[in-house]
Amino acid sequence: MSKAGGFPGGYNEGHRLCVSATHGKGLKKTTLQGAFQEFGHILQIETPKANLAFIAFSDKADAQDAMEAMDGKTLDGQTITVSKAGPKPTYRPQVDPNENFKKAGQVLMTTQTERENVRYRKDVEKAAERMKPRSRSRSARRRTDPGADQT
Length: 151
Fold this sequence. Notes:
Structural class: alpha+beta
Largest sheet: 5 strands, antiparallel
Strand content: 15-25%
Region (Disordered): 79-98, 113-151
Helix content: 25-40%
Subcellular location: Nucleus
Number of strands: 5
Order of helices and strands: EHEEHEEHHH
Distance between the termini: 106 Å
Domain RRM: 15-87
CATH superfamily of the largest domain: RRM (RNA recognition motif) domain
Pfam families: RRM_1 (PF00076)
GO molecular function, one term: RNA binding
């Protein structure tokens, strides 16, 4: 069993901060580590997007100090905003939204290209049907009443 606040295997999520910049070339892990390591032991730095990062400290007081000291500061020419981040989201496999259609044997068209392909196939099938040779026999009325055309 893991200790309170920890995870099995000894991993501790720590106290997470969200660091964001409104513009610029992005936040680099090495720059963030250099700027934030003076506040305490950093467990993890994540950069899921160019101007967004999450920094996890092992100690709550260290995270609080870093947040107060670094919020509004300039880092690599960018003004950063530092706030408390919520817990790291847990991965949950997404349920396929088309699952009900697959079970019923139906296909859900989701893209314009797929819809266009279906329309094209139907148009080709209709054109092929029109191109089939027709019977050369005369209508049933003409066969039964040969004198109907003569007056």
